[in-house]
Every structure is written in structure tokens, then in C-alpha cells.
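Explain this record to help learners:
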Amino acid sequence: MASSPGARKRAFDNALSLVDAERDFPQNVFRRPEQYRFLFFETEYIFVKAFVGIARAFLEVDHGEVVCLLNLWRLERNYERTAIYIDRDMDDSTYWAALWEGTIEEQWISSFGERFVCCSDSGTWAMYCERSEDFSAIAIRSDDVPAFQEPLKLMRARPCKEAFDGYYSKIPTNEELTRFRLEIAKHYPGPA
């Protein structure tokens, strides 16, 4: 079922209302952070064909109609195309084509300095991503976390320390990266 214009507008509005576009990592970018539980996943999960299946899994749980992937960087600069909408009718190839659309400067797949927010028309969760960072954050309303276990598994989303320790144990680290990780952990506390 294709998404309605009203659902797309709700998803777009949720993206703008759930994230403070004036903030970036390592700050907590989510508005009303006390209402959410934060998990982290590798940024590349958003920029692969399989993300369509992940988005659909989130829609199944939250009974949403559409997921909006909003490019904040392009929105701030008044680009014509600032969002990609994923509904139950979109397939992997269509999503992949949307990421690669246009000239090299226009392609989202090569947008390494840009920032994104992703959420559905339900507004129960939101993802924030900076293409220049290895990890992205997902905020899910605290009471709703158990219901989202399946889509979270698909993304390998984990609490901050667990996500960082597992990923960075495989690569060399430095003082700047260590400071950044500590700041992230401070702004995105784990479960009480």
C-alpha cells in the first residue's frame, strides 16, 4: 500500500520535531531525551538496500504508514530533494536508486558530511545519523522498546558502551576518538 500525502507530512514533521537540528554529535540531538531509550548502530545500515526491510519492520511494530529519511544538511541549504519516503510498496532497488540519484554532488550515498534524521509517521522512534561518523543513534520511547526488539536486532542496535566497545575493539583508537566516545556516553545514558 502506497503511503498517503498526510502520512508523509506527519513523518516529515516528526523528523523535524523529534530532533534539534541545531545540535550534532556528541551532544544529545533528540528533544525530550528523558522520554527515550538510546541505542547505537553502524551508520551504514541506513545506506544499504536492506534498509527498506528494516524500515518495514519498524512500520510493522509502530503501525505506521511511511518512514521519512530527511537530509538535514540539504534542508538547511534549500535543496529541491530533502527526503526519501519508504513505505510498504518501496523495494530495495527503488531505495538504492534514490540514494544514487543525480550527479555525484547530489547523491546521498556519497554525502559524507551530511546529517540525517529518520522516523515514521507514528513518531514513536527516531534515528539520527552523521555520515562522517561510524555510529548513529536511535531513540525509542522507553515504554515501547520491548516491542521493537526484532527491528533493533536487524540493525544490531545496542547500548552505547556495548556498541562502541564491540566495534572499536577491532580498529586502532586514539585520544580524540576516546574523548568523543566518552562525550557520547555522557549525553546518551544507558538504561537505569
Remarks:
- The CA atoms of residues 100 and 183 lie 33 Å apart.
- The longest strand covers residues 36-42.
